[in-house]
Amino acid sequence: MSMTVSLVFLAVLMAAFGGWLFSHSINVRPWEAQAAGVESRQMPRAATAPRVGLAVFLAVVTSLFALTISAYLMRQEMAHDWRPLAVPGLLWWNSACLVLGSVALQLAWRAARHEQPARLLRGLLAGGGLTIAFILGQALAWWQLQAAGHYLAANPANAFFFLLTALHAVHLLGGLFVWSRCLFRLQQGATPGAIRQSVELCALYWHFLLVVWGILFVLLLRT
Amino acid sequence: MAIAIAVIVLAVGSVLFFFFSPWYLTPLASNWGAIDDTIQITLWVTGTVFLAVNLFLAYVIVRYRFNQRRRSQYDPENKSLEVWLTGITTLGIAGLLAPGLVVWASFVTPPEDAHEVEVVGQQWHWSFRFPGEDGRFGSAHNRFIDEHNPFGLIDDPAGQDDILITAPHLLLPVDRPVKMVLRSKDVLHNVKVANFRAKMDMVPGQTSYFWFTPTELGEYEIVCAQLCGIAHFAMRGRIEVVEQETFDAWLAERPTHAELADRAPGDPEAGEARYASCAACHGAEGQGNQVLNAPKLAGLDAWYLERQLELFRSGARGTHEDDSYGQQMRPFASMLPDRQAIADVAAYIETLPDQPLQASLDAGDPERGARRYRTCANCHGQQGQGIRATNGPRLAGMPDWYLERQLQNFRQGIRGRHREDPYGNQMIEMAQVLVDEQAVSDVVAYIMTLPQPSGEVAAVTSAAREE
Amino acid sequence: MADHGQHSVPHAPAGEFDDMELVHPKTFIGKYIWSQDAKVIAIQYGVTAIAIGLVALVLSILMRLQLGFPNTFSLIDPSSYLQYVTMHGMIMVVYLLTALFLGAFGNYLIPLMCGARDMAFPYLNMLSYWFYLAAVLILMASFFVPGGATGAGWTLYPPQAISPGTPGIDGGILLMFASLSVFIAGFTMGGLNYVVTVLQARTRGMTLMRLPLTIWGIFMATVMALLAFPALLVAILMMLCDMLLGTSFFMPEMLNLGEQSGHEGGSPLLYQHLFWFFGHPEVYIVALPAFGIVSDILATHARKNIFGYRMMVWAIIIIGVLSFVVWAHHMFVSGMNPYFGFLFATTTLIIAVPTAIKVYNWVLTLWRGNIRLTVPMLFAIGFIFTFVNGGLSGLFLGNVTVDVPLADTYFVVGHFHMVMAVAPVLVVFGAIYHWYPKITGRMMDDTLGKVHFWVTFLGTYAIFYPMHFMGFAGVPRRYYGYGETGYIADSMQTLNAFMSVAAIIVALVQLVFFYNLVRSYFHGREAGPNPWQATTLEWQTEHTPPRHGNFGAQLPVVYRWAYDYSVPGAKQDFLPQNMPPEAVEADDAAPRRSS
Asked: Locate the Cytochrome c domain: which residues (chain B) (predicted)?
C-alpha cells in the first residue's frame, strides 16, 4: 500500500538513528564511572546547532511531503474517478528557474565563505529572484489550468496538483523570508562572514526543496 | 504500607469483580463462540500477569520498605533474568496472537453458502436490501438517491427484483450463514448487534462486510457503533432470528424494487371522498379543532400522514391506555381499507390550503426554546419544515397545544413505544432531551415563532404536486 | 534580584562547546513574559496547559453528569454532549498532555539534566510558547462561535466532521483546524529545540548512555511528534480543502440530510489512515515521557539504580519506532481491507514486549531497593498499577479478533483512560511533587499530597475499571443516553451513577492539589538544593531555583550515569553525576563492584 512511501522514509531515518545510537551504546557499560576525556565530544565539530536544527527541520518537512505523496498515491488507488492531469509545459521552465536559483545560492554560500561581498550579493539576488520567478511561474501554471477548465474541485488529480505545488511554494516562501533577512542584513552593512551561516542554511534549504520539487514533478508527470 | 495493601486489595478486588459482577458479555447468539474464546484466553493470560505483577509489586513494597540501616542492592543489569522475562513475555504474546489470527482468518472469509443482505446506514436510520430471486444485487450508487429512490438503485435488470426493506426491522433465518454487505448514504456508521459479536463500519463511497450465522431464535437490537452525529445514540434497529419458513413467508410479503416503482401514487380526488369522515373533527380544510382535540392536518406531507395512518390502523399508535385521543382516532383510521386508500386521503390532505396559526399557549419562553430546538432541527429542519430523508415531519405551522401534548406523550412513553413504530421509538429517545415540562413549553413556543407558510404558498405547492 | 553573570566567566573546558549568548533582559516583562529562559517558558507552558486541562476536566464532569443522571440537566443536549466529548479528548491529549510533557517538563528538564545553559534556540523556544498560547485561545474561542465547538469526536473523522448532523460544522471545526495548525507550527519550533539541545548541547561527559531516562523519554517522544504531527497537518489541510474549496480528498458521493453533497469519489478511510499515522504515535508521545520520568522517580526514591538501563533505553527506541507501524489497529472495524488485520495485529502485539519489559524493570528497580514512600513514589507506584491494567487491556484491543466485539464500546474508553490518561497524569503529579522543590525552592505539603494521591488513585480506578465491563456488555461509546436499549441492563445505570460520583470526587480533590501548589509556594518548608538526594544534574545547581543559565560559572562535567545510588564501596548514599571518581569516599574494604 501507498503508506509505504512514508514508511520507507521513516525506516531510513530510524535505521540511521538506531545505528548511530547502537554505535554509542554497544559495549558501553553506563554504570561505570570515568572521567570524560577530550574524545567525549558529543557531536562532530561540523554539526553546529543551526545545522543540526536545519537537518531536523528538513526531516519534519520530508515527513510532511512523504505523507502527502502517500495520500496522493492512496487516493489514486482507492478511487475510480482519477483523471490524470496534463502537466503544463510551463513547469519545465519553472523547474529550470529553481535549479538555477539553487546554484546561485550555492555560489552565494561560497562567496560568503571567501568573504566576497559583491559576489555574495549577486548570488543572493539571483537566487531569490529566480525563486520568485519560480513561484510566479507556478502561479501562472495554476492560472493556465484554471483557464483550461481544470478546476481544483473537478478531479482529485487536479486537487492534488494544487495541493502539492501550494505546499511546496509555501515552503519556498518561508525560505524567502530568511533570504530577505540575509539581504537586509547585508544592506545594513553586515560582513559576509557575519551572515555566512544564514546563507549556508538558505542554500542547503533550497537544495532540499529542489530535490523535493524534483520528486513532485516526476510524480506529477508520471501519474 | 498502605499502598501495598491498596495494590493487593485492588488487584484481587479487580479479579473478584470480574467473577462476581453481573456485567459481562451478552448471551451469544451467533457462531462466533470463537471470538468469545479468544476473549477468554486473553482474560486468563492477562489476569494471571495482572495478579502476578501487582502482587509481586506489593511484596516488594513491603519487603524493601525504607530502613535507615539498610542500603539498596546495586545491580545494574541481570542479563539472564532479562532474557528469561523477554522470552516468557514473547511466548505469552504469541499465545494470544495465534488464536486471534486464526479466528480472524475465518472472520474475513464468508462461507460459500452464505446468503447476502445489504445494510444501508443513513443519519439516523437503517434499511435493508435482499438480492431477490436472481441472487444478485442490482448496482446502486449514492449519486442516484432521491426521495423516490432511497436506495440509489441504478437502472439495472438485476435490481428489479431486489427486495427493499425501509423499516429498520430485519428478519434472518436461524442457522444460515449471512454476509452483511454494508453501505452508507452519508457519514460513517457501524452496524452492531452485541449478541452476534461481529460488527463493521459502513463507509460512504464503498462497501464493507462481515458475516455470521445466527444460532439462537429471538429478537436482537441493532445499535450504531460509530459516531454519526447528533442522534447517534438513537439510531436503532431490530433483527429477529426466526425459522426458515417464517423468514421465507416474511420475505415474500416484502415489496421488490419493481413493485414499489409501480405503486400508484395517491389520488387526491379519490381521497376527497374518504376525507369526508375526517372533516367532522379535523375540519373541512384540515384546519383542526382544538375543542375536539383534533390537530391541524393541512401542511403536513403525505408521507408523514400515510405513516401515521398506517400506525393507527395497525394499532402501533393510539393503543396506549393513556392516549385517549389516539384511541379516538383508531376507528377512523380503520375505516380506510387498504394502503391505496391511505395514500389517496394523504394526497388529498396535501392539497388543502395551509393557513397560519396563532399561538394558544404562553407558558414557554421561545428564547430558551431556541437552544432546545437545535437538537430537533437536525431531523425536522432549521425552519421546522420537515425533512423526508430523516423522517422528521413538519413542525412549523402546527398547533402548539398538539405539539406539546405529543412531546409529553413521547416523554412519558405514551406515544412511540410500540415495536412497529421505529420513528416513534426514536422520538422517545430524543424527547429525553426535554428534561421537564417547562422545556417542552419552551421548545413549542420557539416552534411557533418559525416561519409559517401563507395559505397562498401552500396552494401553489399543492397545485404543483397535482400535476 | 540581580542577574547572575555566569556567561561572562569562561566555563570548562574552553573551546569544547560554543558558549551560548543568553538574553538577559532587565525588565519584569522581559524576564517573565517575553522570556527566553527555558525554565520560565516551561512554567508558562505548564500553567497554560493545566489551565486548559481544567476546562477539559470540567467538560468531563459535565459528560459524567449526563451519563450518571440522564434527563436531569437541561443544559446538556446531544449537541453539547458531543462537543464536550470532542473537546475533552482533544484538549487532554494534545493541549494538555503533549504540551505538558514536552513543553513544560521538556523545557524545564532538558537543559538542566543535559548540563546545558539553555535550549539551543531560545528565541524560537519563546515563539513556540506564544504559538501554543494562540492555539489554546483559538480553541477556546470555538466554544463561542455560532454553532459552538465541533462535536465530531477528537478523531474528527470525515464525512461527519464537516457535514450536517454534527454540531459545530461551521465555525467550530474551522477553529479546530486553525488551532491545531498553529499548535503544530508552535510545537515544531519547540521540538526542534528539544531535539537539537539533547543532541548538541550535552555537557562534557554526558554521553548518550548516561542520559537520565527522563531525557530519553522526552527526546524520543519529541522525535516521534515531529514526524507524526505532519500527518495530522496534511489531513486537516486536505479536509479544509474539501470543506471550503469543494475538493473530494476524503468526501465521497453522499447525502447531507437528504441533499446530494456534490462531492465525488473521496475516501474517508484515507483520512483515517493519515489521522492514525499521527494518532497512534501520539499515544506514545504522551506515554514515553511518562515512562522516562517514572523511571527516575522510582530510582531516586528507592535509592537504587534503575534496573536494566540499556534495555530501558532500547525499549523506548523500539516502542517509538514500532508505534509508527501499528496505526491501523485503530481501524480493525473501519471497513478497510480486512487483510490488514493480520499485519497490524501482529505488529501491535509485538510492541507489547518492550512495553512489558519496561514494567518488569520498574518493579525490579524497586526490588531489593530501600523504598521511601514519599508522595512522588506513591504516584509512581500508582502509575505502575494503573499502567499494568491499561497495558493488559490493550492486549484485548490490539488483537484483531478480540477487538471486534469490544471496539467502539466502553472497554475502549476504559482502556485508553487507564493507559494514556490516568497513568500519565499520575506521573505528571508525581513529577510535580518531585521537582517542585527545585522549581520553587520549597517542599510541597506531604499530608495534602497524600490525600491528593489516595483520592486520585482510588477514585480514577473506580471510574475507569468498571468501564471495561460495560464494554464487555456491549455498551457503545459516545452515546448521549441509553434510555431504551433493551440489552443494556438497568443496573448499568446504577454503575454509571457510581462512576459519576467518583469522577466528581476526583475532580474536587484536585482543588487540594492546587491549594497545596499555591500554599507551598509561600509557606512550604525550605527545600535546599537537593531534598531527595538525587544524582541528576538539575539537583546539583548552584542556586535553587536555578537562575537563567542554569549552572554557575562552569558547566558541570559528568563522570557517571544518573543512577549511582547505594554504590557498593562508596560511603555516600548517592553519587551525583558530576562527582569525580576521586571524590568518592571508600566505605570499607569491600571493592567497588564491577560486573
From this structure: 266-353, 364-451
